[in-house]
Each structure stands twice: as structure tokens, then as C-alpha cells.
Design brief:
Blueprint: H1 15-24, H2 30-38, H3 42-57, E1 60-64, E2 66-69, H4 100-107, E3 117-120, H5 130-143, E4 148-151, H6 154-164, H7 168-178, H8 193-199, H9 206-218, E5 223-229, H10 235-252, E6 255-262, H11 269-273, H12 283-296, E7 302-303, H13 307-310, H14 312-318, E8 325-328, H15 349-358, E9 362-366, E10 372-374
Parallel strand pairs: 1-8, 1-9, 2-3, 3-4, 5-6, 6-7
Antiparallel strand pairs: 9-10
Length: 423
Amino acid sequence: MSGALDPGRLGDLRLRPIGDKVLRGERLDPDDGLALYGTSDLLGLGLLAGWVNARRNGDRVFFSANQHINPTNVCVLRNTCVFCSFARMPKEEGAYTRSLDEVYHEAAQAEGQPTSEFHIVGGLHPKLRLQYYTDMIAGLKQRHPSVHIKALTAVEIAHLARIERISERDVLQALKDAGLTSLPGGGAEVFSTAVRATIAERKLTGEEWIRVHRTAHELRIPTNCTMLYGHVETAADRIGHLTMLRALQDETGGFLTYIPLAYHPDHNQLGEEMGRVGTATTGYEDLKNIAVARLYLDNVAHIKTHWPMVTPFLSQIALAFGCDDVEGTVVYERVYHEAGAQTQMHMPYGELVRLIRGAGKRPVERNSLYQPVRERFDDTSSGPDARTRVPAPATTAPATPAPATPAPATPAPVVSARAVHAA
């Protein structure tokens, strides 16, 4: 893919001038983006995106040894975020809120494992204060000092700021002081005002989501970015969304990776209203969204496929369509499965390595900041203790000792859900 590229051989004539731009290193404009979404030449699109990725990342494919933690599914947006299958009202069946002891107990699975990241997201609980989250992060850092903490979406940050009646900057600074490494990219959905009014009324606007991430970048907190596709949005909505992400990256350089998230329609109001229950996005759309992102987001270093949403098999194919990250071990993913994802709740470390190698690529284990942790995989059958790890540099201020844990909450049932707070 990193060899010669001949745009003249592309089957769709509309792709040829775009291919010429790619060869010259010129930025694509929104009309180019619409042409990319409009093409039926999926292989030609993949050829362009794969060439760009190979020039940037070579044959490397990144993954992480990560563990997901969802402290609560109680959410004040339960009745207006109609695409979500995760949220519950406080007294609704299946609602849960974990005590800090329960969070620490779940995180203890990382002991003796290669875990290098905790991915922490949840609902907008009306009564959980900022201290609950700062105590949680500080306690996790005290117990697992080498594990990065990627926690709380922009929506959760803004919610905490409203509850505490302080600025989003103050919330972010408090979390960083407690040991936060980075922010996930969830809650973005699609920035279009019309789309948000349809699927996520009362959630942050696109401009507000951008504002939270800009503030995080100003505080030297790197973040991810996402887009939820495959529901009511148009190609123009998608390109408008990507253009806003690209503009913020031009300004701050704070995005680590972009993840296109496939909408799953089971167990949510939107899926029922659209008559989509039991369906999923097509592989054609999944691969196209990966490839378009790689070509359009010329200033974002990495494009990630989320295997729990689109299956490991399609994620492996995506590695030829501009993708250079297959997510991670994801122990244990809950947010997508209640919405219909049929994949496993986690993937063993060695299986990720084999998946990448099976695509003819070179696996690189990374931490949250895309710093390499391991690049040699001579033996992935001997368990995590056999791994030789690259020492990760300190990325946050030393965590303070964990404060006293609040009274235990009702133990949480095992639940799962949709792409509200992904990646």
C-alpha cells in the first residue's frame, strides 16, 4: 500500500482527482468528502485510504490491554437520548450505581494482567458529585499506579460542572489532579443540530462538545474523538461533523485518535421507531466510514476500529482500509451489547495479536497516549507474566491517597448498552 499509487486506475472517475490531491498531500474539501461517501468503488476508496495510512503508520497496528468500568447507568437523559440502550432512571428496573469499593473490586481484575488502561464512562447521575469521581480516580491510581485512566466523556464533564456550579475547566483540572490521563471521545454522536434534535435532545450541542475538548487540550489532557453513524444522519451531516473535528485538531492538536461508531438499534426507542430492531450497519458502510475518515482527517494520527461493534472479522479487514488500531482487550464491554452487539465481552491478548498478524500487519501494544508498550511478540501463549514491557513515562501528577469510600450501593447487575460513551 505504501508503494506507487496511480489514481488513473481508480474505477470511479470522481475518485481520480481526489487521488491526485492525496498524492500531492493536499487537504480534501467537503465536496471531496461527499464524493468519497458517494462512491460505489469501495476497493478504490480503500486503496487510497490504505496508501495514506501506510505512509503515516507503516505496517504497524496498535492495540491496548484495557478494561472497561461503568460506575453507573443512571442518567438524566434516559428519556431524550432515544438511541441509547444503556441508561436507566434512578428507580427503573436494572438501574445501578457502584460504590467505590465495588469499582476497586472490579478493577482488581487488572492485578497480574497486562492491563495498561481503565476506560471509565457511565450515565449522568443526578446525585453523584465531582468528589465521587476524583476519589475514584485517585483510588485507582493508588492501587494501580502504572495504569492509565481514560475517563468521562464531554457530556459527563459538562454535567458535573452544572451540578457543582463550577466551570468545565475546573472539573477537568480536578480530575487531572486526581490522576486522569485522557478523555474518551463519546457523546459526540453527530454534531448536526437537526440530527441531535432527533436522536439526543437536551444533550450537549456539537459546539459545546467541541468546547469541552478544546478546554481539555488547553489543560494538556489529550482526548479521543468519535462519530456515531448509521441512523438518521446524511453524508453531508457526517462531513460537517468531520470538518468540525478537523478544525479543532488544527487549533489544538489534542486528539489522539478518531473512532467511527456503528449504531446498534436493539433495545432502544430509535431502533423501534425506525423498524431497525435486529439489524446492524452493513460491512460496506463500516469500511467506508473508516476509509473516509483516514482520507479526510489528515491531521489525526490514528483511526481506530471498535471490534465489539463491528466484529473482529470486519475489524481485521478494516486494516486494509486506512485503519491502524483495533481497540483492545476490552475487559468487560457492556455499553454495546444490550443494544444488540453479538461479539464477546472481551478478547484475549493473544487473540488480538493473532488477528493483527493474520492481516499481514505488525502488532504494537500501546498505552492510552499511543506510546509503545510492547513490539515483540515471540510468545503470547505463556500468559501476561511473560511479557517484556517498555516502562511508560509518568503522565500525571502523583495521585493522592484514596479518601474514605462512601456507603456501598446496591450491587450492580451485569448490563450492557449502546454507543453513548464509547472510545
